[in-house]
Design goal:
alpha+beta, 6-stranded mixed sheet, about 25% strand, globular
Length: about 160
């Protein structure tokens, strides 16, 4: 008799997932990604059983726009946005053709722009950069619970 060892996935299958590819990542990709996220989260009650609070939807849109902005500004190719809804979290992944990870910069109130990674780290539970056959995947795990508060300390670490 052969015994098999099985392991459960560390992350359960999403309740709902959707993806969109922006072939021409310039143009209106950022606004389109924000709208795509709002539409996706509007469908959440059908699989989750409850509506997602407006402030969580707006923060999710902010995270999406920061990640898509990084892909648009720092790569030369299409990017793909993947949203995966779980019971209390939303996994936001942006795939792009550049292998290099985004570089988080220290807080500097005098710096104009380039705060995207700081913002994502501050409002998400985690942020990871994973190699992907066509470049990289930047994945942020975002809490959908309204009691999740943003603190001065980063909620997650950038892992590459």
């Amino acid at each position: 008799m052969t015994e098999a060892i099985t392991a459960e996935r560390a992350t359960p299958e999403p309740l709902l997932s959707a993806a969109v590819v922006y072939e021409d990542a310039r143009g209106d990709a950022i606004a389109s990604a924000r709208a795509f996220t709002a539409d996706f989260l509007a469908a959440a009650p059908s699989v989750r059983g409850e509506r997602i609070a407006d402030e969580r939807v707006e923060l999710a849109q902010l995270v999406v726009s920061e990640l898509v902005t990084n892909a648009v500004r720092h790569t030369a190719g299409p990017c793909r946005l993947l949203l995966e809804l779980r019971r209390d979290t939303l996994d936001i992944s942006v795939f792009d053709p550049e292998a290099a990870a985004p570089v988080p910069r220290g807080p500097d109130p005098r710096r104009i722009g380039q705060h995207g990674v700081e913002i994502v780290v501050a409002v998400c539970e985690s942020l990871a950069v994973e190699p992907d056959p066509g470049g990289k995947r930047v994945r942020a795990r975002f809490s959908l619970r309204s009691h999740h508060t943003v603190t001065a300390e980063p909620a997650g670490r950038l892992v590459s």
